[in-house]
From TrEMBL:
The keyword Acetylation does not apply. PANTHER family: PROTEASE M3 THIMET OLIGOPEPTIDASE-RELATED, SACCHAROLYSIN. GO terms for molecular function: metal ion binding; metalloendopeptidase activity. Residues 225-699 form the Peptidase M3A/M3B catalytic domain. GO terms for biological process: peptide metabolic process; proteolysis. Binds 1 zinc ion. This is Peptidase M3A/M3B catalytic domain-containing protein. It is found in: Cytoplasm. InterPro entries: MetalloPept_cat_dom_sf (IPR024079), Neurolysin/TOP_dom2 (IPR024077), Neurolysin/TOP_N (IPR024080), Pept_M3A_M3B (IPR045090), Pept_M3A_M3B_dom (IPR001567). Its cofactor is Zn(2+). Pfam families: Peptidase_M3. GO terms for cellular component: mitochondrial intermembrane space.
Amino acid sequence: MASAKFKQPPQAPPLFTHTAESIISETERLNAEYKKDLDEIVAKVKPENATFKNTIGPILVDDDGSAVLRRVLNFYQHTSPDAKLRDASTKADDITSDFDIECKMRQDVFDVVEAAFNQRESEKLDTESLRVLEKERKRYVRNGLLIPDGPKRDRFKEVQKRLAQLCIQCQKNLNEDKSAIWFTPEELDGVPEDDINIADLEKGTGENEGKVKLTFKYTHFFPVVKYAKNAETRSRYVIEDANKANHNVPLFQEILELRDEAARLLGYPNHATVNIEEKMAKSPAKVNEFLGDLRTRLAEGGKKDVAALLEYKKKDYAERGEDFDGNFYMWDTSFYSRIMKEKEYNVDEIKISQYFPVESTFNGMLKIFEEIFGLLFVEVTGDDRKQISKTGKAEDIVWHDEVRLYSVWNDEADGGEFVGYLYIDLHPREGKYSHNANFNLEPGYIRTDGSRNYPATALVCNFSKPSGKKPSLLKHNEVVTLFHELGHGIHDLVGRTQYSYFHGTSVVGDFVEAPSQMLENWCWTPSVLKSLSRHWESGETIPDDLVSKLIATKNLNSATSNLAQVLIGTFDMTIHSPESHEAIKKMDAGRLWNQLRHDISGIKGPEDIGKGYNWGNRHANIGHFIGGYDAGYYGYLWSEVFSTDMFHTHFKANPMDKEQGRRYRKVVLEKGGAQDEMEFLTEFLGRAPSTESFYRELGLA
Ligand SMILES: [Zn+2]
């Protein structure tokens, strides 16, 4: 039981009390204050007396002080149930992007930052401050400040502004996507009622008479591709899914051309080089080598996977008494993988999901983090919410009444200090961000008076809602996803940096997934799975035989699924490193995607049944390419190398090892981005990282 002290966090949580008007006015106020700070810096400081303290210092103080409000104002667009607030938040985001570009292109500010950078040796800066100085300077450089004043510089600025608008627009289109497809109940034969209750679906009228409406959200997508027996249904569904964001296609093409133009104006050969130079990989060549190597090593395994799945398809057709043409298509993969799992491994995902109701599973996950990292999670409900709310109103500290809130502490043995706030928003809603992700709402940092500001972090998920008397049940892959996102949340919560600049998950893009990916391994550990499980009716834990069968499927069809990642990474690198600007203008990204998909996966698609390579634009609905993972998607596979190495080296023997857990928290998680990632990774491993565990795990060593 939590003691009384744990009811009174030393810092109130953020407020979600904004109106559409105040979202805009507050944004404008923050921007005006920031501008004033910059004006003051350049008024006071001359290049000859510029130091970290008098140039970057005030910028960081402003960053820290405005951080929570900026994040909250930005957050409404992804989560507010009120469309007006979402629109205002999107607009505010737009205003700030424009403003940021203006600021980061100020020659007068850059002159003093550059001077401070050149004089850095004379100041005895700590590692974190030095790192901010280097990164800030680079940010100005990447914003074109070394481009001579004149038409080239003006064009660069124009390009940046347009790019920011386009990315916001594309993301908004994805968030608000309402595409749907109509099927008769017969066409959906095989889809379990547990997953999609046909009676709950919207019924069609007119030309859709007798049909029901399905969306392309996860809660519909996976059940259809995994369970719909009718191949025509699956094929129509995946092709339609690849066309749901066609209005993004021209916008995306413009993004690609502008990114390329901007990179060339900066003097870089392409956008990928700009984005990778500061990452762990350092250069596109290194990334291409990594992806190419993986593609080669996985190709054979991919063929074997498909051959095995083909056998299941053959048997399935024989059982149905239908003719089989010997072909295996992209819309068959999930369906026959699921059958293979059920038949060969006797793994029934629906049966397993009965042991993982989202509530108790989530609580079990928190317990795991309590044990290994020495944390304590105290749920804040009812009147306790009023107590900690700055306005005294419980509803003001959440953005929707389904949101759960925890105050997080170090446990008593670890000092009992407050750590921060954790929110979870589990189920889909109209207009809500449609994937699963972690959002920082307030960063941690040291205030000017020396006290610590504590972070707040939110998990925004889309697990199916409870239906009838059944709670929301998680399939095993969803258990893994939730654990993964919670892993980002913990990374965000335990950060202990000086500046918000490097707080939590503010690490390089090709490392940021590693901590969460490492934690996924816990969900493949029998003892952990048992501790997380609790049958929603009987309360029993999952039986051992079900667990061992499930674990046996860990790397089932892993060549195929990793090749799918290689595809996205390769596409991403190809579109962001064209040979010339002409080449990007001529590029047909949709066609390129379909061609790469066909070649890399080795699985047939619409192009093999006479539909050509222009049958869909799957690439236009991958938010990663617009949301900051551009020329960065490889990072998922790249950081998997590190995560596997860390897990095998220090946790495989005992994932619940408290000592290693706390050491990991201290050496890796607490650092945020304040130290070179390779340095703390090497410190944690006790040697330089190696790819060996990764390839061994995939059976490719
Ligand atoms: Zn992640």
